[in-house]
Amino acid sequence: MQYRQLGRSGLKVSALCLGTMNFGSRTSPEESFAILSSAAEAGINFIDTADQYGGDAGVGTTETILGQWLAQDPSRRHNAVIATKVHEPMSEAVNDRGLSARHIQKACEASLRRLQIENIDLYQMHHIDRSTPIDEIWQAMDRLYQQGKITYVGSSNFPGWAIAQANERALNQQRMGLVCEQGLYNLIERRAELEVLPACQQYGVGLIPWSPLAGGLLAGGSNAPGRRQSDAVQEARRTRAEQLQGFEALCADLGETPSNVALAWLLHQPGVTATIIGPGTVDQLTNTLSVPDLMLNAETLDNIDNIFPPCGAAPEAYAW
Prior knowledge:
This protein is α/β, with parallel strands linked by helices. The strands form two sheets. The chain has an eight-stranded parallel sheet. It has a two-stranded antiparallel sheet with strand order 1-2. Helix content is 40%, strand content 15%. The chain has one domain (3-307): Alpha-Beta Barrel (TIM Barrel). The chain has helices spanning 29-41, 61-72, 75-79, 101-115, 134-146, 160-172, 196-203, 231-239, 241-254, 258-267, 282-288, 298-307, and strands at residues 3-5, 12-14, 16-19, 46-48, 81-86, 120-125, 150-156, 178-184, 206-210, 275-277.
């Protein structure tokens, strides 16, 4: 497994980050345990979850499953870099959501109980909260840090200006600030190149792309059940038929699956630390393990850009 530094921090994480959103909703606890164990055996040390994950099984279910797996063997916690998130509604209560100092404190303590750990390695703000002052957020994060409950802070789904704002305020108060941003980025959705990626690179924030396969669009003509067969994905496949056919032909020439090439492409982009993978089975996990070793040459990268044109980088894309 390939390891990279998490943004400008000294922490090293695997280039593949195991996303757990399906655990408890689409994937049974038993299969989830098998995926986690196989990932650990393959050298994946970066595990991402969120307090709200669980689907119909209920919020907190995914963290609970991960906590049960960690508790089975105490040595697992020593190697695993655990990342979770705060922001999304956890109940109907008006204050059981967002990034108020009160909710951050209570949500962190609840996540620690479900995960059965004493410290969260990476605590991420799941979304921007425009109603909470950034000073209040940093006050809450500092308190958790002083209490030994978190080690690093990250963001998710933040625009470039908010990444800059959060880090400027942190730097002014001699804090480390954000070390990573988990954002939407893939070959079809490249708008992160306009503002988010430049902001991340400027502040030493590692980008962790989610939905790297665009909901299954970049996985090839798979008949696998789930989101790939949804009406929205099928309509997008029809709309982008020529583009996707070109990409799949390029992958066939390389002798690689479209999903692995799409994942490898992300790992070739400057500023990307790791990419989220969300296997629903051990076989799906196994099929992605070679991705960090898949090298795409300059010609291949240019050909991919011809199929999926880049957005450009701010401010050059529109300010001159």
